[in-house]
Specification:
Layout lengths: L4 E5 L3 H10 L5 E6 L3 E3 L4 H5 L9 E3 H5 L5 E5 L2 E5 L4 E4 L2 E4 L2 E4 L3 E3 L5 H6 L6 H20 L3 H7 L1 E5 L3 H21 L9 E5 L11 H14 L1 E4 L4 E4 L3 E4 L4 E3 L2 E4 L3 E3 L10 E2 L3 E4 L11 E3 L4 E3 L13 H19 L14 E4 L5 E5 L2 E4 L1 H14 L3 H17 L16
Parallel strand pairs: 1-2, 1-9, 2-5, 9-21, 11-12, 11-17, 12-13, 20-22
Antiparallel strand pairs: 3-4, 6-7, 7-8, 10-18, 14-15, 15-16, 19-20, 23-24, 24-25
Bound molecules: flavin-adenine dinucleotide (FAD).
C-alpha cells in the first residue's frame, strides 16, 4: 500500500519534534520551511546582546532530516493552502498532500500600531536579533561623538516594552552591557547617561509566575539599574519619542517590542477557523475545525478544550513539543483506523533569567530565585538546545562571558538602517 504523504510547514519546536517521532514510520514526510535552519528562540536575546553568535542557536534542518529515508526537506516559503484540492503553494512550486500540519509559529503583534511596527525593534528571528545587536552597538558609536547631553541621553535610552520573560531577560542583558561593556569599550561615555526602561501594562512583571517570582525579578532588575514602569501603557512611538498612556514621553531611539505575539500562517484558512490572536482554532487532537486532514499546532494553534486554557494554551515551546508528540501518535491512529487521544498539557513550570547569575524558577510547586535558579535555567537551556555542537558552543561562550564579565560578540557585521 502507498504510504500517505504528510507535509509539515515549519521546522520550529513543533515541526522538529514531529520529525523525531516520524523517523522510520510508514509515512512519507516533506518538511517545508522558509529558512534552512531551526531557531532556538529562547536564547535570541543573547544574540541581540552579543553573548552568543547566531550559529549557537540555529540548527540546520537538513542535518536533522539528512539520513532519514522517509523524510525530505524543501526550503520553501508557503504562500497559500488549498484545503479542497490538498495543495500547498510555495515560492518553489506546488506540493500535494494527504495530511497537512501547519506549525508556522507566531510573529510580533503591534496591535495595529503602524508607527511601532515601523520603528520598534523585534525579537522573533535571528535576523531581527542581529539587527538589535547592531542597533545597540551603533547607538554607542553614535553617543561617543555626541556633545550635547540631551542628545546623548536620547541615544542611550533603551526601552523594552513587555514584562514577560522575553522583556525581562532582554532588559537584564542590556543592563549587563551597561555595567560591564560600556565602561571598558566606551570609556569616553559617562555610564550614567545610559538608561534602561522596562515598561509593563499590568501591575507586575512575569505575570504568569507567582507574585514572589515577580517581586524577586523586579528587585534583580532594579539592582542592575533597570527602571521598571508598571501599570504603564505605550501609546505611540515616533522613532525618537515614546508616548506613554499618562501623556509622558521618553526620548529614545531604541524601543524593543516584547509585548505580544500573534499566530502567523499562509492564506487559505477559513476566517471562521481563526480565533483570538490570529491563532487557528483546533480540536483536542490539533485538527483544524471543519477539516479532516489538516492540523495546526504550537504557537499558531488555539486549542481551548480544557477549562484551564479558555484562551488557548500558552505560546511556549513545551506546548508545541507535547502537541507534536501526540499528533504523530494520533496520525498513526487515524491512518490505521484506531482511536485518537485528546491532548492534555503537562506544565513542568516556568523560569526567567535576569542578567548574570540571577533567575527565577518555578516547577511543581518549588520556587527558587537567585544563583541556584540561574544554574537550573542554564542547565535546562543547554539540554533543550538541538545538537551537541550548539550545546558546547553555548556552554563555552557562557563560561567565557561569566569569567570575563564581557559579551564576547560585539561586532557590527550588518549595520542596522531601519526596517525599510
Ligand atoms: C525571544 C523569545 C523568547 C522565548 N523564550 C521562551 C522560553 O524561555 N521558553 C519557552 O518555552 N518558550 C519561549 N519562547 C516561545 C517559543 O519559542 C515558542 O513557543 C515556540 O518557538 C513555538 O514553536 P512552534 O513550532 O509553534 O513555532 P516556531 O518555533 O516559531 O517555528 C515556526 C517555523 O515555521 C517557519 N515558517 C513560518 N511561516 C512559514 C511559511 N509561510 N513557510 C515556511 N515556513 C514558515 C519558521 O521559519 C519557523 O521555522 C520564546 C519566544 C521568543 C520569540
Amino acid at each position: 500500500m502507498k504510504s500517505p504523504h504528510l507535509i509539515i510547514i515549519g521546522g520550529g519546536f513543533a515541526g522538529i519534534e514531529m520529525l523525531k517521532q516520524l523517523n522510520g514510520l510508514p509515512i512519507k514526510v516533506t518538511l517545508l520551511d522558509k529558512n534552512n535552519y531551526h531557531t532556538f528562540q529562547p536564547l535570541l536575546y543573547q544574540i541581540a546582546s552579543g553573548g552568543l553568535g547566531p550559529d549557537a542557536i540555529a540548527y540546520p534542518l537538513r542535518k536533522i532530516v539528512g539520513r532519514i529515508p522517509n523524510i525530505a526537506f524543501r526550503m520553501a516559503e508557503v504562500k497559500s493552502i488549498d484545503t479542497n484540492q490538498n495543495i500547498v503553494t510555495t515560492d518553489i512550486g506546488d506540493f500535494t498532500y494527504d495530511y497537512l500540519c501547519i506549525a508556522t509559529g507566531s510573529v510580533t503583534n503591534f496591535f495595529g500600531n503602524k508607527n511601532l511596527q515601523e520603528f520598534a525593534m523585534e525579537l522573533k528571528s535571528i535576523p531581527q536579533a542581529l539587527d538589535l545587536r547592531s542597533k545597540i552597538l551603533q547607538e554607542f558609536e553614535k553617543a561617543v561623538s555626541q556633545t550635547e547631553s540631551g542628545q546623548i541621553e536620547q541615544t542611550l535610552n533603551f526601552v523594552v516594552v513587555g514584562g514577560g520573560p522575553t522583556g525581562v531577560e532582554t532588559a537584564g542583558a542590556i543592563a549587563e552591557i551597561k555595567n560591564n561593556v560600556l565602561p571598558s569599550d566606551y570609556s569616553e561615555i559617562n555610564k550614567n547617561f545610559m538608561k534602561i526602561h522596562l515598561i509593563e501594562a499590568s501591575d507586575r512583571i512575569l505575570a504568569a509566575m507567582s507574585e514572589i517570582s515577580s517581586e524577586k525579578a523586579t528587585e534583580f532588575l532594579k539592582n542592575l539599574g533597570v527602571e521598571v514602569h508598571l501599570k504603564t501603557q505605550v501609546k505611540d512611538f515616533t522613532g525618537t519619542e515614546l508616548l506613554l498612556g499618562d501623556g509622558s514621553i521618553i526620548k529614545t531611539e531604541t524601543v524593543i517590542w516584547a509585548a505580544g505575539v500573534k499566530g502567523e500562517f499562509p492564506q487559505g484558512i477559513e476566517s471562521n477557523s481563526i480565533g483570538r490572536g490570529n491563532r487557528i482554532l483546533v480540536d483536542e487532537i490539533s485538527k483544524i475545525k471543519g477539516l479532516n486532514n489538516v492540523f495546526a499546532l504550537g504557537d499558531v494553534a488555539m486549542m481551548t478544550h480544557e477549562e484551564k486554557y479558555p484562551n488557548g494554551h500558552p505560546m511556549v515551546a513545551p506546548v508545541a513539543v507535547q502537541q507534536a508528540n501526540l499528533l504523530v501518535k494520533n496520525l498513526q491512529a487515524i491512518i490505521n483506523g484506531k482511536e485518537t487521544k485528546a491532548f492534555s498539557y503537562f506544565d513542568k513550570g516556568s523560569m526567567a533569567t535576569v542578567g548574570r547569575h540571577r533567575a527565577v524558577f518555578e516547577s511543581f510547586g518549588i520556587k527558587m530565585q537567585g544563583i541556584i535558579a540561574w544554574l537550573g535555567w542554564m542547565f535546562l537551556h543547554l539540554m533543550l538546545l538541538v545538537g551537541f555542537r550548539n550545546r558546547l558552543v553555548v556552554f563555552v561562550n557562557w563560561l567565557w562571558n561569566y569569567v570575563s564579565y564581557q559579551r564576547a560578540i560585539r561586532i557590527i557585521t550588518r549595520p542596522y538602517k531601519g526596517k525599510n
